Amino acid sequence: MTTFEASTGRSPATTGWLNAAGHRTALNVFMFVVLAHWAEHLTQAYQIWVLDRPRPQARGVLGQFFPWLVSSEWLHYGYALVMVIGLFLLRKGFTGRSYIWWMIAFGIQFWHHIEHLLLFIQAQSHTMFFGKAVPTSIAQLVFPRVELHLFYNTIVFLPMVVAMYLHLRPNQVEFRAAACTCAARPVAAAA
User: Distance of CA 18 to CAs 14, 88, 101, 174, 178, Å?
Assistant: First the structure.
């Protein structure tokens, strides 16, 4: 019997590598992707609001070298899909309070993914919705695209951060229920 099996009463095979022995590694890779995406959006915002570039010229980092990426709905939809899949696949590694926050992020990202799916369908079919000349999501009817995506990324990222914080600092019950070894030990209960 391994230390993991003895401490949790579970076999890693029952929860899968992603949510057991590989959870920390998978979370680190996932968070690298998330932070790289954030860097792109923050760079684009900096280009618009600090460097005063016209929005079509504010392409983030990758868009400076590969301008077609920014206008490709394949890239944007692909990232939204990676996010929703990553949040879904990694959810079982979370317990208690961290699970609740992770699922809040998942729910918001699921809607964000639907918005990108609408944009993707319009771009691929060359049929624009809502009487617009360009692919437009539902929330874009009210908010400009750059600001909207900064908002979406923020409201998905913040519950993810809370979930990760709580995941790495579980209480006794959450620690015993965890299938992964991300937390070295439970946080002592407050007196």
Answer: 11, 11, 19, 18, 13
